[in-house]
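Human: I would love a firmer grasp of how sequence relates to backbone shape in proteins. Could you go through the record with me and say what the backbone is doing? Here is the record:
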Amino acid sequence: MRFSKSLLLSLATTLMTMLLVIGGLWTTSSVAFAATTNVQMGSSSGMLVFEPAQITVAPGDTVHYEVGGVPPHNVVFDGNLSSLSHPAMIMSGGFDVTVPADITPGTYSFYCEPHRGAGMVGKITIKG
């Protein structure tokens, strides 16, 4: 009888381990991966624009802003996204902005501070 109790215990432990592994694989396969959206600041043809000027992202996604032409540039967000602003002017290169997981879905404006009057503005829509 002692042998069968240990055999049953071993079998139950093995079965529980298998269920945990299979359950873990099933839940991780449904996790969405964050995406990266690229936005060029200033066009290569010399226009003071964001390309694209309208983007749609999800919480957790990253937006990569890259200087394209006519620097210097920065990115300033309005409203609930103001903490994501990159107010420092850059002449080349770029920077990343990651959309917080707890942000309220909606459409927000952003702009390049020195070129806002010239129309260098954009919209970011955050999906819910």
Remarks:
- DSSP finds one helix and nine strands in the chain.
- Residues 86 and 110 are 10 Å apart (CA to CA).
- The longest strand covers residues 36-41.
- The beta strands are 36-41, 50-51, 54-57, 62-67, 73-77, 86-90, 94-98, 106-111, 121-126.
